[in-house]
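To the wet lab folks,

You asked to see what we're planning to order before we commit. Fair enough. Below is the target structure as tokens, and below that is the sequence we designed to fit it. If anything looks off to you, flag it before the synthesis order goes out.
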């Protein structure tokens, strides 16, 4: 197919017009960007600055300013005019009285449960506490015993220790420290003057009973019964004593009566320590 010269010229002219229009449009867009780009960036930066939150110093908070003097005076006068409600005071007093009564009832119930768990009658705990008397100064006869010893033997020693104001020492508690019931019952059986007595009216011997593993370790007591004349107060709680606390110079072993153990103690060189004890035993 032939293309005439006139048609070819027309097509060439159209192409040139299109190219010129494209070049003109490109120049126009470039000029607009160069003219409007700077102000647009400035407006954007200004908008970002306005939208940015104001920074505060969190480490130093600002306290509210003091109220005006008139407002403070009105608040003080309002507090002075306030009077406690009589009804509120009455209810508070009734609540306090009821609370004290409830506390007393709870104490009584706890004491009853404690006596039942120890197998003791009301008043026996008080009698046992009265039997724990202060120990005199000087040398105190301490008889090392065990809960495995027969109760009649322990009762016999308790009667003899009462005459010389001695102390009966156990290494530990039967069944462990978490079970004090067996130890309390054993103490009551040993200290009752009348073995057949039951109840709070039973009379207890004036003999101090201690549980002290430290005094056993200090004197190297490995078997019982044993006797030592300990200076000071051997009944002081072992948690308050040091390992270097005063101790006896002699320890006597044997299944003899207390008087026989004391005689043996004197024979081994403890004449001064047992002088007062022997005088008490000789007294009627």
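Sequence we intend to order:
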């Amino acid at each position: 197919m032939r293309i005439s010269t006139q048609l070819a010229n027309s097509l060439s002219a159209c192409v040139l017009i299109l190219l010129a229009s494209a070049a003109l449009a490109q120049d126009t867009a470039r000029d607009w960007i160069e003219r409007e780009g700077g102000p647009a960036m400035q407006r954007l930066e200004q908008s970002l600055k306005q939208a940015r939150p104001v920074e505060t110093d969190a480490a130093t908070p600002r306290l509210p300013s003091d109220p005006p003097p008139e407002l403070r005076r009105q608040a003080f006068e309002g507090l002075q005019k306030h009077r406690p409600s009589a009804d509120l005071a009455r209810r508070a007093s009734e609540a306090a009285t009821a609370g004290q009564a409830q506390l007393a009832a709870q104490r009584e119930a706890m004491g009853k449960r404690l006596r039942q768990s120890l197998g003791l009658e009301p008043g026996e705990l008080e009698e046992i506490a009265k039997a724990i008397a202060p120990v005199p100064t000087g040398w105190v006869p301490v008889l090392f015993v065990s809960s495995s010893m027969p109760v009649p033997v322990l009762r016999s020693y308790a009667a003899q220790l009462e005459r010389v104001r001695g102390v009966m020492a156990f290494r530990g508690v039967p069944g462990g420290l978490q079970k004090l019931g067996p130890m309390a019952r054993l103490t009551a059986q040993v200290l009752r003057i009348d073995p057949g007595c039951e109840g709070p009216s039973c009379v207890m011997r004036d003999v101090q009973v201690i549980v002290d593993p430290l005094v056993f370790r200090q004197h190297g007591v490995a078997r019982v019964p044993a006797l030592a004349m300990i200076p000071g107060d051997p009944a002081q709680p072992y948690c308050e004593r040091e390992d270097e606390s005063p101790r006896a110079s002699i320890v006597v072993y044997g299944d003899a009566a207390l008087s026989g153990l004391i005689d043996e103690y004197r024979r081994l060189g403890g004449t001064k320590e047992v002088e007062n004890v022997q005088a008490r035993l000789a007294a009627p």
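Structural context that might help your review: The radius of gyration is 50 Å. The beta strands are 139-145, 167-170, 208-211, 226-231, 251-253.

Thanks,
Computational group
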